[in-house]
Amino acid sequence: MLDKLTGVYAPRPTPGPHKLRECLPLCIFLRNRLHYALTFQESKKIVMQRLVKVDGKVRTDPTFPAGFMDVITLEKTNENFRLIYDVKGRFSVHRITAAEAAYKLCKVKKVGTGRKGVPFLVTHDARTIRYPDPDIKVNDSVMVDIESGKIKQFIRFEPGQICMITGGHNLGRVGTVMHRDRHPGSFDIVHVKDKTGQTFATRLANVFILGRPHDDFISLPKGAGIKLTIAEERDRRMAAK
């Protein structure tokens, strides 16, 4: 995320909804990605003016941890961004429309029953949502309306769905779920096939369902999640010249 020549230290993200190793502090996004600030102090001044919203809430902490699928809104410039991985596994600056910024997809991490028999689920970004649809299971994805925090619809984890890989060696790749190998007592393995016909396997925990093949809930960044070999990348660059 940061180049190796411009200083020794990096801003440590505040504890928040995303893991330390899977998030991007707001100051890095404003300074190193958007170049709206030259220094940490300038990015701090931007957030302290209450100009930056993450998932519809104003955040004034310059090291607030924004993570996968979060919607960052800058109303002053009328811009919306979704934090999503490119095929090299980096957070890309992915601009989205206002209509797409009204919702986000969340992976269901846990389903349970709380006090007084209230059913609830917990998502990958630490949301607890009460009274969900009883058909929603762990590893499904739910579409959450950002303004109300309610579930609009859910997408099952099953073969044939489009998914993005959110961890491991294949981070950022997009493909179709082929099948799931169950290994009781170990990690379940999911086999995925991308648009070019390449197949790869990853752990179940790394698979994030985006929708059915004809759905376009989430627009993808440049490259559309298809990993090229070094030779193919070179040929593309040469052709572009």
Describe this structure in words.
By secondary structure, the chain is mainly β. It is built from 3 helices and 17 strands. It has a 5-stranded antiparallel sheet, with no helix packed on it. The protein has a 5-stranded antiparallel sheet with strand order 10-9-8-11-12, with no helix packed on it. The longest helix is centred in the last third of the chain and has 11 residues, at 230-240. It is globular and about 50 Å long.
What is the topological layout?
Elements: E1 23-25, H1 26-33, H2 40-48, E2 52-54, E3 57-58, E4 65-67, E5 71-74, E6 79-85, E7 91-95, E8 103-113, E9 119-123, E10 128-130, E11 141-145, E12 151-155, E13 162-165, E14 174-181, E15 189-193, E16 199-203, E17 207-211, H3 230-240
Antiparallel strand pairs: 1-4, 2-3, 2-5, 5-6, 6-7, 8-9, 8-11, 9-10, 11-12, 13-14, 13-17, 14-15, 15-16
Percent of residues in β-strands: 25-35%
Give the spatial strand order of the biggest sheet. 3-2-5-6-7
The H-and-E topology, N to C, reads as EHHEEEEEEEEEEEEEEEEH
Number of helices: 3
Residue share in helix:
10-25%
Point out poorly predicted stretches: none
Distance between the termini: 27 Å
Cα-atom radius of gyration: 19 Å
Subunit organisation of the chains? single chain
Q: Quote the average pLDDT.
A: 92
